[in-house]
């Protein structure tokens, strides 16, 4: 049995509940799933500014629960918020939604599109796509809705905007598969796949399956260099409680 922690780095409990439900449907039944929010941070992550603050909340959760024996982490934000820093904090494998989804998309289609809610996220995601070596085959489009629109009374309108953006990408970008560019879309992947007739990759599902696989193989994050534990030093002011002590 593996213990997998899925951390939504924003404060949207609605998104976290969706993620928890999806995880329990697709995770292997012998694995224990924890779905968590930080105690502080933004309601949603829409661009670099939100991401910077949300990363601190993410790391605070990992610092708290890592000693309890976590076998793998999923960072449930498509911006892969704080993933590199998290890999420095724990030896357990850490996977973000964008990286997990792209690894699946590369195996399923020659060309694919990420559809994200807002235009402010397009450039950050293009940078991630380039980082993961997928820029030749991947395009990023915005549906033109807010991230939080996928909850509550705006959900139907948000879905229609997502569907139109995905159809446009299939038609104009030669995309052969669609990647959902937000954790809050996890509950509509099957519906969109049926409406489009092409593979639809949800980063929540993809990242969970990748982490489950690494955990079952007893793989750990290398501490040899890139993701080594941060060297011990004092941190000051608001961050005094985050100072590294293991490096």
Automatic annotation (TrEMBL):
SUPFAM superfamilies: Aspartate/glutamate racemase (SSF53681). GO terms for molecular function: amino-acid racemase activity. Pfam families: Asp_Glu_race (PF01177). Signal peptide: none annotated. PANTHER family: PROTEIN DCG1. Belongs to the HyuE racemase family. This is Asp/Glu/hydantoin racemase. It comes from Thalassospira mesophila.
């Amino acid at each position: 049995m593996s213990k997998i922690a899925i951390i939504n780095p924003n404060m949207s409990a609605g998104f976290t509940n969706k993620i928890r439900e999806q995880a329990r449907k697709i995770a292997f039944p012998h694995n224990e799933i924890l779905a968590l929010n930080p105690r502080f941070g933004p309601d949603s992550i829409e661009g670099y500014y939100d991401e910077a603050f949300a990363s601190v909340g993410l790391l605070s959760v990992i610092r708290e629960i890592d000693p309890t024996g976590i076998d793998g982490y999923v960072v449930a934000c498509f911006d892969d918020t704080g993933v590199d820093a998290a890999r420095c904090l724990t030896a357990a494998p850490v996977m973000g939604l964008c990286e997990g989804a792209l690894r699946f998309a590369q195996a399923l289609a020659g060309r694919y599109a990420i559809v994200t809610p807002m235009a402010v996220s397009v450039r950050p995601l293009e940078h991630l796509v380039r980082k993961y070596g997928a820029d030749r085959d991947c395009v990023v489009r915005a549906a033109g809705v807010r991230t939080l629109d996928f909850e509550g009374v705006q959900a139907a309108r948000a879905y229609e905007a997502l569907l139109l953006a995905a159809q446009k990408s299939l038609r104009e970008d030669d995309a052969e598969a669609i990647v959902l560019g937000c954790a809050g879309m996890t509950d509509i992947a099957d519906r969109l796949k049926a409406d489009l007739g092409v593979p639809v990759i949800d980063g929540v599902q993809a990242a969970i399956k990748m982490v489950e696989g690494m955990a079952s193989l007893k793989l750990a994050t290398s501490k040899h260099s890139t993701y080594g534990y941060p060297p011990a030093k004092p941190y000051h002011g608001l961050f005094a409680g985050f100072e590294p002590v293991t490096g």
